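Researcher: Go.
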Amino acid sequence: MQLRYAFRLYPNAVQQASLARAFGCARVVFNDAVRAREDARKAEQPFPTAGELSRKLITEAKLTKERCWLGEVSAVVLQQSLRDAEKAYRNFFASLGSTRKGPKLGRPRFKSRKDARQSIRFTANARWHLTDSGRLNLPKIGAVKVKWSRTLPTTPTSVTVVKDAAGRYFASFVIDADPAADAARMPSTDRIIDLGLTHFAVLSDGTKIDSPRFLRRAEKKLKKAQKELSRKQKGSKNRAKARLKVARAHAKTADARREFHHQLSTKLISENQGIAVENLAVAGLARTRLAKSVHDAGWSQFVAMLEYKAKRYGRTLVKIGRFTPTSQTCSTCGAVDGPKPLNVREWTCAACGAVHDRDHNAALNVKQAAGLAASACGAPVRPEPVLAQREEAGSHGFPTGCRAA
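Model: Structure:
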């Protein structure tokens, strides 16, 4: 199992210029690969192979006047950029053939220097290393200062340097973890989670976890920063400063939400052998009038953390179908009382007269639907497949922060 550990980088002015040069070279090679593929498609010719692209776009391009500056950065960075293009096309064709899960993917597009996220990747053969003083020594960039929040459990296999929209730099290390070694602490309890908006989560034992509402709390500050940005002239330096201020405000909100998800998911995984959650239709709920609250809660990110941590520590995670009427069913007698408006937080069962808290009742119904046995193994009756581990991406999808993912 592979995990990513991200740490904040603090490059100096010279190193920032070197990183910007590396970002640009990687971007150019990626765009050249996409252009070569598209030209071959329009000419109805076979796609050039990875070896042909490497020879033409890197080796031979360095000898030309137009691309001679490619030699100023590590060759590994350029090769990894080609691999990213190859992977993007593989995912695109897999999506066309319906062999890839998830939403349909479009054809790979050209990257821009104005993209919110820039990244380069160094593998082991790039000869990067950690110095005795704790700095990250990168080829043709130098020893970059790292803010270590914890030690790496094993030797990393690769490192990706990321610059986000807020102008922050991060180093994402990929390590190979041993789930058997991580599964030393194995309690015999089970916990059921009902996700919501009034409370972020309600557990089957009645515990309610309040929703921090990070976006709602930062809304006033974000609105002010966005208004200042809209008043700046396009292309001016003041607009660039205002844009950076907006990006940093959003990054602060996202980091706080991610930290909350990490702490809660780690706590639940470490304390329970079996966990069951509802498989909510987040994409559908995000198109309703509750969209802002749904995005603010970040259910998908939280469930994804539960998934990979359950796999890492040998836990059992069960997802209940989204069409199970957990909020309409009496957990005492099983009678279905019909849908209820969101403002109804307590209701009385017409069949047995039991008084229910809406969220606690839903959590109990999730537990019954999950079929978790009160045993040490906590094996589910009908488990769903767990887990699709997030892969190391060279250009997209990396959440900034200092947590394993």
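Model: Residues 237-271 form the longest helix (35 residues).
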